[in-house]
Design brief:
By secondary structure, the protein is mostly helical. Helices cover 74% and strands 1% of the residues. The two termini are 19 Å apart. The relative contact order is 0.19.
């Protein structure tokens, strides 16, 4: 059976677009404004919240990410994880984008824009540091937030979890050499405590909670009760996403207002690389006939960044007040709104994608898409 024909585990049916989902773009814009304003006028409060961290992982943000991703992990039938090997093409495309394209495309874009196009408007002494920060940002694929993006585009949850696990395993051995190659630094100190804590907080613990909770819910009321729980928890996930946005912009409210031009200029190469890498992954998956429920999260994982690790590495290598750290923080700020825009593109183009994915297969392998329940 061709990969484009089916998804391994279709996402549970949705009762309809809810209030939060219908106006999500408006809520995101409001949260950006509110967060920036609160961070500017209440710097002490947000400084205290920002200081609540372990190994550069902010605990309030980590708690909100739990509220976002645990309901999504509840959708996963872990007994069916072995079937994800049928989506080897999607996994291959994502790995290619994450490790062979994204870090190098970011290095090229950073060099082009920061050293040449935007050089007259940037502090000359900080350009190298800014470039280093952008490279650190692109060298590690996202671990936690991709579950949110995958859920919003009805991505195949088993594929998403498997892909994140593979990326985490590769990151342990590839992050330092890759950064050393691109930055020309002979010795990179990887913040192992940040990496280990993030993987534990965002993958291991939530997966354990989801497995136990899913079994308990199904034992008590079967799949119907699970559907009801997922419907109730959906608004909680989106509310946590919006509150996370308020916190992230609140933490940097002062910097956004004090250095708006620098932040805007640093955002340009980040935006270009997100759309370039997500678009390339999406097109490659379409060319290879990969199911849309896999191509969506593949494109999103290929474009998003592990900003906790990037910020921690920048602080360790260059200092908390360096241009490198500021550049990684800009990545944090635009992560949510820009990835939501990619989700919208993926969802809006589903019909176009599926038509091309079917016609891209050899005739004897092509088969009609099975409609998801």
């Amino acid at each position: 059976m061709s990969e484009v024909a089916v998804c391994d585990v279709p996402a549970p049916s949705r009762p309809g677009i809810g209030f939060f989902e219908r106006y999500l773009t408006l809520w995101v814009a409001l949260c950006i404004v509110v967060g920036t304003a609160l961070g500017h006028f209440l710097p002490g409060t947000f400084a205290a919240l920002g200081a609540m961290e372990v190994a550069k992982v902010n605990l309030p943000v980590a708690a909100l990410i739990w509220l976002m991703i645990i309901p999504m992990l509840l959708k996963i039938d872990f007994a069916a994880m072995g079937q994800v090997r049928r989506h080897w093409k999607g996994i291959g495309v994502t790995l290619f984008i994450n490790w062979a394209v994204k870090p190098f495309s970011m290095a090229l874009l950073a060099w082009l824009f920061l050293r040449h196009v935007f050089a007259p408007w940037l502090p000359a002494g900080q350009v190298d540091s800014y470039i280093a920060g952008l490279i650190l940002l692109a060298a590690a694929p996202c671990t936690a937030m991709v579950f949110v993006w995958s859920n919003l585009c009805d991505g195949e949850p088993n594929f998403t979890l498997s892909q994140v696990a593979i990326n985490d395993a590769i990151m342990v051995v590839a992050f330092a050499p890759l950064v050393a190659l691109l930055l020309g630094i002979s010795a990179i100190t990887v913040p192992w405590d940040t990496l280990a804590l993030s993987v534990g907080l965002y993958i291991v613990v939530p997966v354990v909670i989801a497995v136990v909770a899913r079994r308990w819910i199904i034992a008590r009321g079967g799949p119907a009760l699970l559907e009801r729980w997922l419907a109730r928890l959906g608004p909680v996930s989106l509310a946590a996403l919006l509150l996370t946005l308020v916190l992230l912009f609140g933490f940097q409210g002062r910097q956004i207002i004090d250095q708006p031009l620098v932040i805007a200029l640093l955002a340009v190469p980040i935006l270009i690389q997100v759309y370039f890498n997500s678009g390339l992954a999406y097109l490659l998956n379409r060319r290879f006939g990969v199911a849309h429920c896999v191509a969506g999260p593949s494109a999103l994982i290929g474009a998003s960044n592990f900003f906790e690790l990037a910020v921690a590495a920048a602080v360790s290598l260059f200092g908390a007040h360096s241009g490198a750290t500021l550049a990684t923080v800009v990545g944090v700020l635009i992560e949510v709104p820009v990835m939501l825009s990619v989700v919208r593109i993926v969802n809006a183009s589903k019909g176009w994608y599926e038509a091309g994915a079917r016609t891209g297969l050899p005739k004897e392998r092509a088969s009609p898409m099975r409609s998801e329940p």
